[in-house]
User: Which sequence fits this backbone?
């Protein structure tokens, strides 16, 4: 039996016509109201993808483009763009009476979500059996066609060899060899716009950040990140990677889901300039927020300070230093000892949130325009 009509006045037609697309509320229903070619359209404000506010997007002719991830829906029918018509958001009848725009919120079409194959990264996070696994991440940038000596890479090599000598599997990932896009700031649009898998990874199959996600989230028990010091900070490639890892940490905020559990991390820091402790502090702070745990004395480092800009001598010292090479091996030993303990112990099932960065998104924040709790 059909529900009785419920025409809700949403405003003056002359005023609303001045803006081609907007978010508004009719009764308890969030709408994306549009006006184009003297025709009104009203559809649900919640995108089928992850609930982005369609009314905050833009018009591409008669299609509304979601501001979060670019999904498109016809502004009057709610149908997805050509080729994706089976994805539909509810559409509502609209009329103008006495110069006022009215929407019948009692007569929406049905929301329909066509099945989309899951991304490979959407699988269950489960450690496979076998020996300890160590991922080494090189963050040094260089011209691959004309390679140079890298002190941080050199010590990372010693660390991975030490891991292999202890029977661990190792994997070296050079960020310099990966083609991955910079973070595009989806979190700055809304917490829920920053998704897992990363929105960029889902939209661009050729994005090679997938290799980092696979290693850190699924494969590795322990991670060693090696970075040079660049103007008192970690390398630019490190920060490019870190920004793309925000989607891992953000799962704690939006889903109370800790993706990194019972994994250990350590660091190698080498530079001609000083500020080792500042670089280490950033690395430790960020990887702690991802969920990694650190061994005692979690990094080794080398720097000759601000007044020693003679890089030829700095390179020679690092290349020849048995102390640094042994230090890298001992760091790996501490890391593997901790990783082994974490795997052997009962896994942590609850993490208290008080005082942590990732406080949950409140219901009032979830109820902003575009985030609905019904299927309208």
Assistant:
């Amino acid at each position: 039996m059909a529900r009785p009509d419920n025409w809700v006045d949403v405003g003056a037609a002359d005023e609303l016509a001045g803006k081609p697309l907007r978010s508004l509320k009719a009764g308890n229903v969030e709408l994306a109201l549009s006006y184009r070619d003297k025709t009104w359209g009203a559809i649900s404000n919640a995108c089928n993808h992850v609930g982005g506010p369609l009314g905050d997007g833009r018009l591409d002719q008669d299609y509304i483009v979601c501001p979060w991830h670019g999904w498109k829906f016809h502004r009057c029918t709610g149908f997805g763009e050509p080729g994706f018509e089976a994805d539909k958001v509810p559409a509502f009848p609209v009329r103008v009476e006495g110069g006022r725009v009215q929407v019948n919120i009692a007569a929406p079409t049905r929301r329909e979500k066509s099945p989309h194959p899951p991304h490979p990264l959407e699988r269950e996070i489960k450690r496979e059996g076998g020996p300890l696994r160590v991922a080494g991440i090189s963050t040094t940038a260089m011209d691959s066609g004309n390679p140079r000596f890298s002190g941080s890479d050199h010590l990372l090599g010693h660390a991975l060899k030490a891991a292999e000598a202890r029977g661990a599997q190792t994997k070296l990932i050079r960020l310099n060899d990966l083609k991955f896009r910079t973070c595009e700031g989806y979190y700055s649009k809304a917490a829920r716009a920053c998704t897992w898998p990363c929105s960029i990874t889902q939209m661009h199959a050729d994005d090679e950040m997938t290799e980092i996600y696979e290693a850190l989230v699924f494969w590795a028990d322990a991670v060693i990140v090696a970075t040079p010091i660049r103007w008192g900070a970690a390398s630019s490639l490190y920060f490019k990677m870190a920004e793309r890892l925000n989607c891992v940490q953000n799962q704690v905020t939006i889903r109370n889901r800790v993706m990194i559990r019972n994994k250990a991390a350590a660091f190698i820091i080498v530079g001609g300039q000083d500020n080792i402790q500042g670089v280490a502090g950033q690395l430790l702070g960020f990887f702690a927020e991802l969920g990694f745990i650190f061994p005692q004395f979690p990094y080794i480092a080398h720097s000759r300070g601000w007044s020693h800009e003679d890089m030829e001598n700095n390179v020679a010292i690092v290349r020849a230093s048995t102390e640094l090479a042994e230090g890298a091996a001992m760091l790996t030993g501490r890391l593997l000892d901790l990783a082994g303990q974490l795997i052997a112990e009962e896994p942590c099932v609850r993490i208290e949130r008080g005082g942590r960065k990732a406080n949950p998104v409140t219901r009032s924040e979830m109820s902003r325009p575009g985030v609905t709790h019904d299927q309208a």
Q: What stands out?
A: The radius of gyration is 26 Å.
